[in-house]
Amino acid sequence: MGYSYHLPTRRNPFSDDVLEWRESEVEELIENRIKMKILIATQKPFAAKAVEGMKNILTEAGYEVAMLERYEEKEELIAAVADVDGLIVRSDKVTAEVIEAAPNLKIVVRAGAGYDNVDLAAATEHGVVVMNTPGQNSNAVAELAIAMMIYMSRNRFTPGTGFELQGKTVGIHAYGNVGRLVARKAKALGMNVIAYDPFVTDKALFENDGVKQVGSVEELYKSADFLSLHIPATPQTKGSIGYRLMMSLPKGATLVNTARKEVIDEVGLEAAMSERTDLKYVTDVAPDDVSTMAALFGNRFFATPKKMGAETAEANINAGLAAARQVVGFLRDGECKFKVNK
Ligand code: 3PG
Description:
Elements: E1 3-4, H1 23-31, E2 34-35, E3 37-42, H2 48-60, E4 64-69, H3 74-80, E5 86-89, H4 96-100, E6 107-110, H5 120-125, E7 129-132, H6 138-153, E8 169-173, H7 177-188, E9 192-196, H8 203-208, E10 212-213, H9 217-222, E11 226-229, H10 243-247, E12 254-257, H11 266-275, E13 280-283, H12 290-297, E14 301-303, H13 313-333
Parallel strand pairs: 3-4, 3-5, 5-6, 6-7, 8-9, 8-11, 9-10, 11-12, 12-13, 13-14
Antiparallel strand pairs: 1-2
Helix pairs in contact: 2-13, 6-7
The site of 3-phosphoglyceric acid (3PG) has 10 residues, from loops.
């Protein structure tokens, strides 16, 4: 369990040749067992407690653990995966090149929700299972979304009269784990919550949360004082939030992006914010054109210096330990519950 046997090539001690069976050979075989190796590769490291817990889970299951933290060049990751059987990452880019450099690789777990950083086609082609850990870091991201709303409604904590969240409407674009938590927290603050998610077919989900489900993205944007984005970056969503949707927001509205920068059409967003000087944009994923936007929009724009939605000890521990358990569950028992490549 947790390791593979290195079968000596000279003679197989489990062959029918029982007469020649020697206990010492079995001992040698066990000595020679090669532990499977799991690499935890994080440009943005997990909290120390999370790493400790992950190492415990993996070593207790019989695996060797290697760490690659705060690396800067993709070549470092490529070199580190050469002999690994499993890989745990955060937003680290697991490209086809990385997968091809890891002939023993069997599983990649993205400790987090969005797996747009993993080349699924390349993984599938090489027989590598890819998983995420949905829900494990959602609360941290939802809290940041609410914090960003307050920050912007108080003029980024600069002197001057701001406004309150209570009584305002928040539109939740995609009602997944994070969207749902934002909805519940917003309701606790006395906000009206509306949501749009064409992939959620169970109406009771919205009703139980006291959330009004709207039938189109247009309807969502036109009524949202705060529009909280929770869509993943996919070929369908990339560049989908731009001029038209921004212009349909009500007066004084704020777009809150704790999802992905790729879903924004930056040119369209800039055009809308230039034309509508009442609109605001706050994001946890800095746009490519961050310095221009900061200069153009002043207090109406804010981007965190580094993505920090899931940067809490709790989120790191939840997602990190879940990832380690999923690696063990797959390598030992073939569990595939959170597999995302088909
Ligand atoms: C996610 O998709 O889980 C979040 O965006 C967090 O990503 P991170 O692990 O890079 O902070």
